[in-house]
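Q: What residues go here?
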């Protein structure tokens, strides 16, 4: 299925969409990202920025099914927030966690 550039239309569902459908919480924690759901500008060059964040390591920002419905903002977080996410009661820990470290 083709997308618009590297961002896939909202008809292309992801693992995150499937987990949402099963009512299972999930999160992505991405190293170098300074804010939730940080995605590249459509004309930006590929590759890491000066802080080390590389959007190519973050598949969440390339799917409109996650971008348009708010899942990206609430579930795609900077790596520094991982400790908070897993320190709660077991019932509050996400069922699935994707972690992407910076290239170093």
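A:
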């Amino acid at each position: 299925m083709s997308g618009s550039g590297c961002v896939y239309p909202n008809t292309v569902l992801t693992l995150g969409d499937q987990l949402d459908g099963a009512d299972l919480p999930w999160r992505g924690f991405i190293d170098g990202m300074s804010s939730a759901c940080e995605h590249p500008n459509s004309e930006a060059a590929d590759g890491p920025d000066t802080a080390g964040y590389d959007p190519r390591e973050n598949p969440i920002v390339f799917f409109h099914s996650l971008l348009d419905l708010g899942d990206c903002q609430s579930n795609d977080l900077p790596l520094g927030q991982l400790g908070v996410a897993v320190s709660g009661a077991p019932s509050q820990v996400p069922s699935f966690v994707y972690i992407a470290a910076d290239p170093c």
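A: Context that may help when evaluating the design: The chain has a mean pLDDT of 85. The beta strands are 26-30, 76-78, 96-100.
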